[in-house]
Amino acid sequence: MTPEPVPAELSARGLSLAYEGRTVVDGLDLEIPAGAVTAIVGPNACGKSTLLRGLSRLMAPAAGSVLLDGADIQSLPTKQVAQRLGLLPQTPTAPDGITVADLVSRGRYPHQGWFRRWTADDDEAVAEAMTATGIGDLAERPVDELSGGQRQRVWIAMALAQRTEILLLDEPTTFLDLSHQLDVLDLLLDLNAARGTTVVMVLHDLNLAARYAGHLVAMRAGAVAAAGEPSAVVTAELVREVFGVESMVAADPVTGTPLVVPMGRHHTA
């Protein structure tokens, strides 16, 4: 009997990330639960996207380290990292004139090599990703002719086609209407359930994060303010501390997960 694959482990130790000498993430320690869905939340400019760039090796640490299965990710070969860890950045850019099918196919590039050419498995991965994201009818369309929501789904398909053990997504619901937001988040849950893929996503919507993630990381000013199950993390005190908003926290009537009801200045006692 073939043993079940062991999910890859990703963590940060004393991680500091900086732009031109300005520290954005400062001495952060973080454990990403393997095989789970993690959402990173927090106010604008708190370091969420920067943290994701550091975890994916797009940014080299100013201090500390990111560990992939216990090894410093900076020391690993680029192709090895790309085969195990996929990233969908916040504002990806496609080459001019590239078609949807060609862009999604690029998700298979890390699996190619001198002695490993395109195979039926690659075709299957691309077709499955396009079907899952509902873009099959767009296959021959140039990406730059699509709407923002359609383009976002194409980029997600490319990340899915990579078939990595870890998938990092920075605001995957950007440009999507509510229906497509839920479609994408349901898709990520399905991927996690079917393959055990470790999913880490930055989300602005705290309620969607609490509904879809099994593990929540709340950030403030480049540090982790709280981390754990949404039911333990999402409290009125945390929302006040992290977001500066007075709120009530109730049970979501659909899922039972925490539901934040912000008050606003005109509705406080």
From TrEMBL:
Coiled coil: none annotated. SUPFAM superfamilies: P-loop containing nucleoside triphosphate hydrolases. It is found in: Cell membrane. It comes from the Bacteria. CDD domains: ABC_Iron-Siderophores_B12_Hemin. Keywords: ATP-binding, Cell membrane, Ion transport, Iron, Iron transport, Membrane, Nucleotide-binding, Transport. This is ABC transporter ATP-binding protein.
